Amino acid sequence: MLIDTSGLLWLHYQAEPLHTQALTAYRKADSRLTHSYVIAEYVALANAKHFSRSLVLAFVVDLLDSPDIQTVWVDKSCIEQPFSC
After folding, report:
1. Is residue 13 left, alpha or beta, with left meaning phi > 0 and alpha meaning psi from -120 to 50?
2. Using alpha carbons only, what angle is made at residue 20 by residues 63 and 61, rounded to the nearest 5 degrees?
3. Contact 10, 21 (CB under 8 A)
């Protein structure tokens, strides 16, 4: 499963309308993947929605520490040779 920006938001905030569906899909997935651009967008989106910065950053730290989610760090080599990442 590729977890995108909206998916992260829906997973993190129970008040979001699609939280339950996102959580169900997350639990059913055999593998989970996201990338550094999604994480950066998530922080910006959560900030725009006036969510608590400390909760957002704590969620990101937990996400990065999670063995259940693979994070691909997009760098210059990924941009120049996208299939090398």
Report:
1. beta
2. 10
3. yes
Residue for token digits 């006036």? 50
Structure tokens at 82: 């996208």
User: What is the average per-residue pLDDT within 9-18?
Assistant: 93
Cβ–Cβ contacts within 10 Å for residue 42, how many?
A: 24
User: Could you give the CA distance from residue 18 to residue 44 in angstroms, rounded to a whole number?
Assistant: 19
- CA neighbor of 56 nearest in space, from 67, 43, 44, 66: 43
- In terms of phi and psi (left: phi > 0; alpha: psi -120 to 50; beta: otherwise), the region of 23 is alpha
Spell out the residues 6+ positions from residue 16 whose beta carbon is closer than 8 angstroms to its own: 9, 10, 22
Taking the CB of residue 34, how many other CB atoms lie within 10 A of it? 21
Q: What is the pLDDT of residue 79?
A: 73
Closest CA to 13 of 60, 56, 47, 44: 56
